[in-house]
Specification:
This protein is an alpha/beta fold. 41% of the residues lie in helices and 16% in strands. The radius of gyration is 20 Å and the shape is globular. Bound molecules: nicotinamide-adenine-dinucleotide. Nicotinamide-adenine-dinucleotide binds next to helix 1, helix 4, strand 5 and strand 7.
Length: 355
Amino acid sequence: MKKILVTGGAGFIGSAVVRHIINETSDSVVVIDKLTYAGNLASLASVAQSERFAFEHVDICDRAALDAVFAQYQPDCVMHLAAESHVDRSIDGPAAFIETNIVGTYQLLEATRNWWSELDAGKKAAFRFHHISTDEVYGDLHGSDDFFTETTPYAPSSPYSASKAGSDHLVRAWLRTYGLPTLVTNCSNNYGPCHFPEKLIPLTILNALAGKPLPVYGNGLQVRDWLYVEDHARALYRVATTGAVGETYNIGGHNERKNIDVVRTVCALLEELVPHKPEGVERYEDLITFVTDRPGHDVRYAIDASKIERELGWTPEETFETGMRKTVQWYLENQSWWQQVLDGSYQGERLGLKG
Ligand SMILES: NC(=O)c1ccc[n+]([C@@H]2O[C@H](COP(=O)([O-])OP(=O)(O)OC[C@H]3O[C@@H](n4cnc5c(N)ncnc54)[C@H](O)[C@@H]3O)[C@@H](O)[C@H]2O)c1
């Protein structure tokens, strides 16, 4: 039984990781989260009553608060997901990305090193710091046969991906310089339950249900490799518990799709599941609206995930079709989750938080 400190555990992927650990393992979890606009305690409601779950409202840039968390909970493992994560926001205001993704990761590494260096030899060797990153650090691919591997050179395009690249370099340097037992994973685009509605798939679902335009950047031909978030959570737990120190693992879903096709898939699922449309809407697809492309928009991302499959035996359980159906159904069945995000009341939830 391990005690795992999960940073950013109230976010989209972090909450899936926490639900996986509480529901599928006997390990304990301590979530630390600043609860920015992207943090939502409602995503943790199903596990919040577990005796193996604890929450601390902490900013990873606050070194004193981090030291106190390590002293109180004495974790065996850190899974670091806290980040500013939305590319468009990084273009409008990069400062928060530099602060959390780079400075915050540095503060967390130092607090972890401080804690880890005092452990006895056995615990020190067993300790793990797992940094969760993105395939966007590799830049984009132009040839349709190319894939990102763990040795693809870094070439980030946006302030978001550049800040994540910086954090990846810090993590690897803390292993090389101080011997902190770190691992890094770089994953493709995730989708699934509890995804904040500013991202493509939930935005499309909710706008379609409301009869609003479905914005698609540029020509919609940008290709992303989509992974169902619960498959990602399983992969992350596998890496944190069985991955080799110092290694990097790419995680992907073998699901390359053009953005326009992703939007059309959502529309087709809604035609089937919600045939009664808002007034004036004949077909959900008619709501698709092409908008000015994002500056520096990467054309294609595609992951070669053969290393994690070969070395750790992980493969995704969901296909794009099964994962998308589950996702659309989740949004249809969990209206209160997204209504509270849309009307802002989800942020009031934090008044009742533990810790
Ligand atoms: N979403 C994707 O498709 C994707 C793909 C690959 C990798 N990633 C990486 O996975 C991680 C999680 O992504 P996500 O989509 O769940 O992000 P998210 O934006 O949904 O969640 C981020 C969480 O971090 C918290 N946070 C932000 N700043 C913080 C700070 N200073 N201190 C403590 N907590 C803070 C937020 O409150 C939120 O709960 C990120 O590191 C991201 O780079 C995401």
